[in-house]
Input
Amino acid sequence: MRGLLKGVGATSVAFALVLTGCSSTEADGGEGSPAELVIGSSDPVPNLVPGRQSNAFGLTMSVFSPLTFLDAEGELSYVAAESVESDDQITWTITLRDGWTFHDGTPVTAQDYVDSWNTVAYGPNAFENSGQLAVIAGYADLNPAEGEPATDELSGLAVIDDLTFSVTLNRADSQFPVQLSQAQTAFYPMPQSAFQDLDAYGKQPIGNGPFAVTTRWTEGEPIVAERYQDYAGDEPTVDKITWVPYSDRLTAYTDALAGNVDIVRLPANRMTQVADDFEDDHIYSFSGPAISYLSFPYWDARFDDVRVRQAISMAIDRDAINEALFGDLNAPATAWTPSIMPGNPDGICGEYCEYDPEAAAALLAQAGGFEGELTIHFPGGAGQDDLFNAIANYLRQNLGVDAIARPSVGWAEFSEDRNNKVLDGPFFARWGALYPSQQSTLRAVFTSAAGCTNCGGVIIPEVEQALNDADASDSEDGEAYAAAQQHLAEGFPVVPLFEESYNFVTSDKVAELTASAVGEPLLTDVILAGD
Amino acid sequence: MTRYVSRRLLELVIVFFGVTFVIYCAVFLLPGDPIAALGGDRPLPESVQKQLRSRYGLDLPIWQQYLDYLGGLARGDFGTTFTGQSVGEQMASRWPTTIKLALTAWSLTVLISVALGLAAGLRHGSALDRSVLLGTIVAESVPIFVLGIMAQYIVGITLGWAPIAGVDDGWPRAYLLPALIIAVYGLAGVSRLMRGSLVDTMRSDFVRTLRAKGMSQGDVVGLHVMRNAAAPVVNLLAIQLGSLLGGTVVIEAIFNINGVGQLLYKAIQDQEGTLVVGVATTLVFIFLVTNLLVDILSSVLDPRIRHD
Amino acid sequence: MTEPATVALDGTLDRATTTQGLWAALRSRVQFWVSLALLTVLAIIAAVPGVLAGLFGEGDPRACDLTASNRPPTSGHLFGTDVQGCDVLANVLFGARTSLFIGLATTAICLVVAVTLGTLAGYAGGWLDALIARTADVVLGFPFLLGAIIVLNTAPNRSPLLLAAVLAFFSWPTFARLIRSSVREVREREFVQASHALGLSQARVVLTHVLPNSLAPTLAIAATMVGGVIGAEATLTFLGVGLVPPSISWGVQLSTAQSYFQGAPHTVVFPSIFLTVTVISLIMLGDALRDALDPRGRT
Output
């Protein structure tokens, strides 16, 4: 046993040595060639097939090039497509640019697009993003309510020649060219090799974009993409991008503080802290096409009276919440879609979106008050606790109702309870649009179209009608959709809360991040320091 | 001894099936719909959800799902997640990390608490003794996430002494700080046991006799105290394995370590049934085997504990 | 100091375990009185938190002003305000009630179960021992987080009592095993063997000799448990399955405040101080009890 004791002593010394070893070496900061970027990605990446990814927008948008592109001002331009045209807003002709190749060297053809879209839309494949193609004629045939589909091709797609194909929609939709833009990844093309083994393709996608994925992705390992030399579009500003996976945004942020990562998303609970942690020019706040709501259980009669819903809206001090919890990075909502949307009717919510506790209490009293406990439901584990506790505090203190905020375990419990109409109080709702058009948000939340189930309250028929009218119009300024919001302002089915910003922090290596219309920075356009 | 071990092995098998079935049912009884949640706040089309439900057998009765799962297990197939990833692959990539972390934490617990326990016991009643007792307890009373986040901030960011996220720096550099935090929560119990055993032994008649015969204090401690303390300490350490693995859930999240703790936590949140059952089952299995080994070891260390 | 075996045989061991003996042993200890004083203060706080908080400023922990979010201590708010602009002092005082309740209730439930099962297993041995040991294995092997999430989420309301029950359910095996092994060890000692030889009944031997001897090491660790439980409650909240507002506990405070600890350290520091003081006083009480119960520990 003497030997054992000595052993213990020796190991302690070794341990002490290791510790001092730690203290003598500095944590290594930026290294390597300046044209490399390290991105902290904190969302799980189960599959990189563009029709399936739901969390890897930055990567997919770097490895693939969209048909059309929307910049931060909402200007539409063409990338892989030369033109997208229609006379009736129903049948669209897409002409591809010549000379484009996939990373495996094969040319990008109209047939590739048609095959890719058919694959994404085919029901039995169960691709997560297939809903983006629901506007195309024949989508329903590939996704029958019962049984196997009789066909695996969308009837609305037809190849005209190598570089031209036509798309027939279910009904007129003036926003189709906008829907083809960068964040609607279901519209990206896949090469013929992809269809033989979609699982393998999902681990190392071959795209038509400026960057090629160089390693097969493995769980928990970084993903690396390098500049594709034969890329036919605009040259990217960087040579190599590495996405390092993090368990959550806060961890990625913390590692950015230590200087180990170049671009990370700002976590919600660091919004008030970020100004102390990072220099001003390392913080980027891009207006996103996302908006949050407080929705009501329309199956609960206590919320039937529009005055109850308006009173709740007026009892919430959005400015104070924005300052205290969001570091003023978000913006209080004044309409039912974010102001980044073209033609957005800013301020249409009027006095009901402004904080006025006395008027709110009076309005609730007029409506006959509120009976029982008011429980606000929100999905737990998503960093929303402070927001909903603040809202509960306002309702309790300003309206005198017994308001509490209750988080669920996660999305699974929350969405089931919402879909099955068992939530017994106002609840969280949010829509992050993938293309900046009021259409995207209004259709998903306030119509019977498959989108956010039960998020928009009772469906107001006038809203649906106004949307259909706007879809058929050929106006491009988006004003046509404002009419639908007029009906929302009158019916007040949900409380608009905040327009979201998508926020990022960068290392010293990054001189400038460029925004795009979907809130994500353009990784291909990052301007590096010292360039 | 052979009979004892074979009986324990049989019990182990029964416990194994019992636990997996309980976990299996529990996960599938959790409130919520994992398929509906796959898309987060941008829900999947109804047809896609229906397709996925039948692909993963969620439309079958639970006993059939369990039998199918066992069947797959017998073929060495842990199944796939709802996003189509192989559970076996995920576990294979994550278990080594967690095992390294846990073993590092475990070793640190033993080293530090034996040292503290001996120091406190030898100077029984002194200021050192009292501060060891109090210090370990106070450290343990701080919630692990508070300690973890503060250590990460102070040691990792302000002082820059240790990496604060990920394990890219390899063992031991990347593992020491997180392992140390986990180890803190085992110190109090083990060092107290060690100290108590030391004090008891030093007072016993036979030690006084030995010392009267001229045996040095070092020899007494080495020979008798360590031997007496070994069995209960090993026992306690085995018990702590559970809380150790629990600690890794929080610490892995804070230090961005891609281990099974993170995997399990995320899987529970997303209700990835097969993943939860796979990870939990391996956890239970490791726990049971360790305990069996410890029971055998402690009967070797302390002949007074007989297994008959 | 006397050897346990001889003490037991002449009956003096039992002296310490009688109330009178215990009291005599306790009252001479400084740490007993200090811890008792601290715990009394905490008990008063837990009994009338609103009145006490009102003396220092804001008496209502749920009177919050978001425009005064995360303010450092001032005269109206001695401990400052938290992220919601609620008074930290009022929350800490109200939190004492919940946190103390969870810590003590968990330990109590856990000890009752563990002492019963551990003694049974250790003393009876045989199939009963195997059954209890395997049950303990299952509970210990069952991932705590998973179990806690399931139980806590199938229940409509996460009350402090439910949380205590869940924490206790996953903690008893540790103690049961400790008690079992120490009971087994005591059982083998000469004095117990001797008691058997003298013809004392099984129950009598267990209650008068085996249990008191096994209890001391258990109490020492049980004392450490209370703090661990209060911390565990906070960790469960951190993981999203613990108490949620409007419940007020130190755990809820800490898990909310940890996001803001750089900008508003006071929101972490004050609940932590109360938590630590509570734990230390419980430990001191536990130590005093342990020394008094265990004659070998006396000097």
User: Anything to note?
Assistant: The mean pLDDT of chain B is 78. The domain at 91-303 of chain B is CATH 1.10.3720.10 (MetI-like fold).
